[in-house]
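Give me structure tokens for this 99-residue protein.
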Amino acid sequence: CVLAKLATQCFDANATVAVPNSLGPGELLVRYGTDSQKEYFLPRLANGTLIPCFGLTGPHSGSDATSLIGSDCVVQKHPQTGELGVVASFKKRYITLAP
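Here you go.
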């Protein structure tokens, strides 16, 4: 509702709010964070003490996510527990002026 209203006024402002909040740490914390991570980060993200940031860039693709070159695979981190992880390999370009 808030994003829809914001989008009617300014697409750039809408993207600035929507991208870090939909692709950023809040969603990841809710799904995969430990209890202590959730207790520390979620209230601070909600009240604005911490500002989420999402950066995506590659040396040959800029910010075009469909042109990023890399590889990833799911691996078993701990055979005893069955815990899975992701190994990603890619080159990146440093992002300046990020919070």
